[in-house]
Amino acid sequence: MKVSARNAFAGTIIDIKKGSTTAHVVIDVKGLRVTASITNESVDDLGLKVGGQATAIVKSSDVIVGVD
After folding, report:
1. What count of other Cβ atoms lies within 10 Å of the Cβ of residue 20?
2. What pTM was computed for the model?
3. Nearest to 23 by CA among 15, 31, 34
């Protein structure tokens, strides 16, 4: 897979929760959990399953950090 985004993190799918139209897919990347919101159709089209391998690709121009 070749993409233009520089932030691609390979990991294992540890949870998929489908809603009425959108699913939350949780990928474990070396102990860090990354959650993506994608359509249920995309989950099915990609054949995503808990325990399967996937890559979280982050494309963003901003990172916001907050503290209390």
Report:
1. 5
2. 0.85
3. 15
Phi/psi of residue 61, each to 5°? -95, -10
Instruction: Give the tokens for residue 62.
Output: 């901003």
Q: Residue 45: helix, strand or coil by DSSP?
A: helix
Model confidence pLDDT, tens digit, residues 25-67? 999 999 999 999 999 999 999 999 999 999 999 887 777 788 9
Residue 58's beta-bridge partner residues?
7
With residues binned 3-state (H G I as helix, E B as strand, rest as coil), the percentages for the chain, rounded to 5, are 10, 50, 40
Its sign, for the CA torsion 31, 34, 35, 37, is negative
